[in-house]
Amino acid sequence: MKFYLPFLFFALSTLHAESLDSLLSGYLENDLQLQKFVLTAESKVLSLKSTKIQNGIDVTLSTGTVKIQSSSDGNRRITLTPNAKVEIASADVSLEANVPIKINDGEREISDGSISATVGILSNNRKKRRVSLLEAERALLEAERNVKNRAISAEKEFFTSLKSLYKYAGDVLDANEDLFDDETALRVLIAQGYSKNSASFRQANLKVERDKRNVQEKQRIFTRQTEIFARKCGRTFNRGNVDEAQKSDEAFNLAVDFLPSEIPKATPEDIFSYDKNLFSESEQARWDSFIGELKRRTDSFYDSGDESSDSAGGKINFSYRGVGASAGAYFPTNSRILGGDVFSDGKPYFLFSLTISPNDWRLTSIQKKQDVLSSRLEKIAEESALDSYENEITSKITEFNDIQWAERSYAHELETYSILEKDMARWLREGSVKESDWRSAKNNRDKARLNVLMNALDLLIFNDSVRLMFREKESKK
């Protein structure tokens, strides 16, 4: 009678099994989501560069409108007004100068030019630019973190998938255990002289046939899942035609042969070595509160500059709760760039205006209340993150203790069943035990080995979970 226990379960795997690192490397290389995050991070680098350029020094040079005119006597007249403008966004300063030029039949005439300067005295633009720069830097930081976290998450998925495959293999061993028991019961009936046509024999034989089908079904599930796993790791695994019952054992052994035969023991992550302030939820809540408060302050007022030819000065536009005011002070330069008459008396002059909007007043009052609520919600989010941290710490400590307990338990179990299997093999040779007793002991030993492998993966999964709980410190760029 045929036994379906894969006797070469560990012998095969130790000869040809893929290494854990090799499979993991292939799994990460083929992870499309990780590739997407890498490209997104590269995009955020470009976005940050763009934002820095927009918030830096901007120089604009222009010829102005060039006018070419021909007269009846054949002379050509060209007029243009070259312009130069420098804007320093971080200081909210703008300087602009232009010089009109006329060219008559090759002779150049330069007219008086002008200069204007705008300085933001009480500038909200600087705050807005700071917000945009901070958000661009944050977007890049989060994109880089997403790359790292996705790599850890993909690694965790890899270990979880591998553990599932070992569990599927364990299901095959469990199914074989049922088959051994029922085959033994059937042989007992035969030894007792039961006829093949008897009800007891036929019922026992049907149980054996059912067990065989169950073993083959479990084998096919394991083999199919291993093939999917191999493809994700960038490997080619041919499981054969498992639809043919006689090839189920062969395909199963090939699948077992593909998987790593051992899992290197990992050093447990010390959760208390991580900075509490870098707990992911807490760090995100503090950032949201910080940038939210900065934006609320930025939106409380606004201003803009004004320009005046041949003068330097500044103008403030202020708006708060429906009341708007503008004021400016200008100081004529008393000269054109290239000399010439002055079109003002050279004395400073001032501008002032006041506006009131009742609707803006009411809307601003509502917005102010909304800002207070937003601030409170952000503080609650920070407190909630602190609670989550405490809960996660407690949960992880319990999980780690369970893993350690299981490690000791499974190690003892494997040692016990290994010794028993060796004794059973010796006793079988001596004729003091039945072959089914030895096969059962061997089956239990192999299941114990699987438990040891899965426990080692549990520790790797635990380590990845801890890493995902915290964020790295922001590097100084």
Which helices and strands occur, and which strands form pairs?
Elements: H1 9-16, H2 20-29, H3 32-54, E1 57-62, E2 67-70, E3 76-80, E4 83-88, E5 93-98, E6 101-104, E7 107-110, E8 114-119, H4 125-191, H5 199-232, H6 248-258, H7 280-298, E9 311-320, E10 323-332, E11 349-356, H8 358-430, H9 435-469
Parallel strand pairs: 8-9
Antiparallel strand pairs: 1-4, 2-3, 3-6, 4-5, 5-8, 6-7, 9-10, 10-11
Spatial gap, N to C terminus: 72 Å
Low-confidence segments: 1-16, 302-313, 333-344
Number of helices: 9
Class from secondary-structure proportions: alpha+beta
Q: What is the helical fraction, as a range of percent?
A: 55-70%
Could you describe the largest sheet, including whether it forms a barrel? Answer: 7 strands, mixed
Number of strands: 11
Radius of gyration: 40 Å
Shape: elongated
Mean pLDDT: 80
Q: Widest sheet: strand order?
A: 1-4-5-8-9-10-11
Could you spell the SSE succession in H and E letters?
HHHEEEEEEEEHHHHEEEHH
Walk me through this protein's architecture:
A seven-stranded mixed beta sheet has the order 1-4-5-8-9-10-11. The longest helix is centred in the last third of the chain and has 73 residues, at 358-430. Mean pLDDT is 80; it is low at 1-16, 302-313 and 333-344. It has helices at 9-16, 20-29, 32-54, 125-191, 199-232, 248-258, 280-298, 358-430, 435-469, and strands at 57-62, 67-70, 76-80, 83-88, 93-98, 101-104, 107-110, 114-119, 311-320, 323-332, 349-356. A hairpin with a 4-residue loop joins strand 4 and strand 5 (93-98). The protein is an alpha+beta fold and 477 residues long. Helix 1 crosses helix 6 and helix 7 (280-298) runs antiparallel to helix 8. It starts with 8 loop residues before the first helix and ends in an 8-residue tail after the last helix. The protein is built from nine helices and eleven strands.
